Write a sequence for this structure.
């Protein structure tokens, strides 16, 4: 066993996150794209917001249960990554929607940079926060911060036809 939250070996972690999780992420993105192209982003915005945030509860579960089963850990990571794939579809489509107009390529590049900054900054301090509040409390805190995603989504205005596949 290696040192880490669940004590997974590098091989087990690679299988759970790098294989099973990746399959979940890809399937989530594909399903998200299919749903959005059928009904539009506006119709799926709230389900996608739930999909990208609520599966993070698996990390709360894993931090408290500390399961030994690689199958259970893999299933949890699949669920979380599938939800992330769905939610990332909404983010990508919204950036495309927001970037419409004369300078769409530049605006999309700026949106992409800001979204990566939004991932990078919390990642930079996550280890420090985990050490400050404790392993289990860290994941509860992450779930609390998911409120921000819901608050931001409440202000988004989207054309109901955006994202729908044209016949």
């Amino acid at each position: 066993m290696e040192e880490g939250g669940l004590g997974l070996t590098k091989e087990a972690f690679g299988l759970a996150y790098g294989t099973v999780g990746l399959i979940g992420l890809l399937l989530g993105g594909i399903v998200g794209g299919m749903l959005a192209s059928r009904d539009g982003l506006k119709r799926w915005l709230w389900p996608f917001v739930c999909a990208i945030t609520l599966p993070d509860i698996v990390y709360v579960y894993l931090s408290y249960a500390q399961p030994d089963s690689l199958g259970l850990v893999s299933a949890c990571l699949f669920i979380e990554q599938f939800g992330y794939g769905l939610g990332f579809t909404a983010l990508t489509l919204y950036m495309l929607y927001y970037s419409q107009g004369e300078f769409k390529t530049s605006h999309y590049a700026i949106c992409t940079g800001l979204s990566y900054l939004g991932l990078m900054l919390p990642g930079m301090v996550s280890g420090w926060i985990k050490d400050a509040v404790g392993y289990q409390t860290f994941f509860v805190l992450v779930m609390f911060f998911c409120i921000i995603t819901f608050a931001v989504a409440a202000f988004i205005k989207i054309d109901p036809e955006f994202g729908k596949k044209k016949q």
About this structure: The CA atoms of residues 113 and 119 lie 10 Å apart.
